[in-house]
UniProtKB/TrEMBL annotation:
Organism: Zunongwangia pacifica
Pfam families, per database record: DUF4265
Protein name per Swiss-Prot or TrEMBL: DUF4265 domain-containing protein
Upper lineage: Bacteria, Pseudomonadati, Bacteroidota, Flavobacteriia, Flavobacteriales
Domain of life: Bacteria
Length: 143
């Protein structure tokens, strides 16, 4: 059974912010993140984390083991191009989640996906002003 885990982080304006992610309970009180974090930095899908239980609310405490997945945040300046680009990312093995009614997406790049291919796709679209992106969590194998 999945649980919600709250991630507390500092946003771009240095304010304290929160985001929740789904996580699967593992042995020894550890959890595995089971969706793509939207805003929280330095975490990716399938990472193993420790949590703190505060009166029934689970809070992220520590990253125990990186999954080798990377997370990239994308904002489209021309959202009419998003469907094509997201499909192209799916074709190379990535998964993504989007925000309803907003041109903001977060992309999961699994361990076995060649990040250079993903980066080339994103850089080409950035150069022509379609989007901008941020490497929210770049795994060692994708550096």
């Amino acid at each position: 059974m999945k649980s919600k885990v709250t991630l507390v982080y500092k946003d771009l304006e240095d304010n304290i912010a929160e985001e929740t992610v789904w996580a699967k309970p593992l042995e020894n009180g550890l959890y595995q993140i089971d969706n793509i974090p939207f805003y929280a930095p330095n975490l990716s899908n399938k990472d193993i984390i420790a949590v703190e239980n505060d009166e029934g609310v689970l809070y992220f405490d520590d990253l125990i083991k990186s999954s080798g997945h990377s997370t990239v945040q994308i904002i489209f300046f021309d959202d009419s191009k998003s469907k094509w680009l997201l499909q192209k990312l799916e074709e190379v093995g990535c998964k993504w989640e989007g925000m309803k009614e907003q041109p903001y997406y977060t992309v999961d790049i699994p361990l076995d996906v060649d990040y250079n291919i993903v980066k080339d796709i994103l850089n080409k679209e950035t150069e022509i002003g379609i989007l901008d992106y941020k490497e929210s969590c770049l795994a060692e194998n994708h550096s």
